[in-house]
Amino acid sequence: MPLICIDQTDLRYSIPLCFGGAACDLRTNSADLARVLEGLSISTTDSVPSGFRMRIVVDELSNEAAGEPHFRGMQHVVTATFGRSNVFVFDILRRTLSASVSAAIARDDLFWKEKLIPISLGVLGSAMGLVPVHCACLELDGEGLLIAGVSGAGKSTLSVALSEDGFNYVSDDWTYISRRRDGIVAHGTSAPVKLLPDAVNHFRTLERHGLRRSMNGELAYEVDIAEAFGARVERTCEPRWLIFLERTQAAGPDFIPMSSAEARKYINSSIERLPSQLHEAVAMRAQTIDHVATLPCWRFRYGGTPQFAAKELRKFVVHRRQEIYA
Amino acid sequence: MTEETHWHPDLLRRFVPTPYVFSNCNGPNGIVVESNDLEIALGVRRAGLVHSRDHLTRGLFCKLIRDMAGPVGGSEMTIVADGALRVLYLGVGTILIHDQERSELFGFVARNVKVEELVTSLIPALLDARGNDKSTQPLLQRSDKRHIG
After folding, report:
1. pTM for the whole thing?
2. What's the rounded mean pLDDT across residues A8-19?
3. Which of residues 55-114 of B touch A (CB under 8 A)?
């Protein structure tokens, strides 16, 4: 029976990293993995108060690629496996990820960039004051726009269209929100933008990319937005507005003010329920959500293409800013 | 008026109801067993009473879910230990977690794993797992890159 004692392994590579605004203390026995994660680390001045630890043993004798993902969680622990050789244990109370992975996974920068880092922030974030919110985030002249909506509402296609229209891209699906003394900060990760197959009708450049099966089983284009669309990427911004997307048959657009209560209800419906053992994380998360819900908030109903929606949204944002700064 | 909360689906299966609860309050040897499966709850209670005398100093809280939705397959057992946490994987569908500091044992049992195997083999293997056990030495040395001790 293989017994992998991470705490008794010589984790000789110790590197301070930063992902999504969270400091990460990496310890590993693999120079390859240390190099990959160092390349993905993004330091920021807006880091969250508490970070997390990654303790990863790499089995140089195993070359097993990432298998089918399987997730389970109970109490304060979440586990993820990607095949027999790649196991990850998230201890939320102790803010620690302990893992054993194959040498192939250690060298696979896409696996860490697209899967493990976003998953780690999603699972451990609440214990660090970093709340994963199901929304896209774009930035214009230092001011952030959070775009929420149910799956299929068009968050990702609108994110790409806004990026092509002069906005800086932060994230398209999950945005990590932290609090600071004078407000909130939105953090993106290095995760790729995910577009469903029909997005090719709006963005011809996708014809150069292949569809692949994403973690939830959907066929999608998963592309680096900077490489595929030449978008400018910002890692953090200060959100100023919260927009809820709603696609309609009518051409639109309509902007309808929404209450904080409605906004809070939506955000709460998109976050994961946490067990009672994590009551401190639950309280911290609730405070951050309260801050997000107090942003000026509108429901944006539109029909037509993402490019049309992007133009309308840009006009709306510019108009609101003129009102604020007038 | 209280806001009604609509939670995200429980994809991790954290909140599967566990109606079968047994407890034996016997000081430091006390044990509480919760499960969604009567056979598991009974089996662990019987075995747990014996085990708690040998290994535990402050009782044990057990919560085990019979995971009918999870994958089945693989027979290799692996234990990952780091600090207070030990996690046993049997194939891909059975995952048992022991938190020594918190005296908690919890996890998911794949639908093809018999209760007898759970209580006579898997749980003892998890509770007994130590890095310096003679029984585990050959496997610990399987990979030279995992420098132990």
Report:
1. 0.87
2. 94
3. 63, 65, 67, 70-71, 74, 76-85, 87, 89, 91-93, 95, 97, 99, 104, 106-108
